[in-house]
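::Amino acid chain::
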Amino acid sequence: LLHTKTGSYEVNQLLGDLEKKLHLYGFFRIHKSIIINLDKVREVFPWGSNSFSLRMRGYEDQILPIARDKTRILKQHLMGL
């Protein structure tokens, strides 16, 4: 499913293919089943032992897990490194 401001849409593509296409537009895969728009990240915070999660602007009630192997790369993207 693709979630946007205007609704949710079923997309008939593999997530890996979407990741390759959307990477150029500021999207990042934070988990095996989640790709996010980096411009919409509201906050990143510790969650459990040695892991992090995040919230997106407009979806503050949802907590999205960040895969441990993606945390360092995500922080670099968000800090503009």
Summary: Residues 34 and 64 are 8 Å apart (CA to CA). The mean pLDDT is 91. The longest helix spans residues 71-79. The helical segments are 15-22, 71-79.
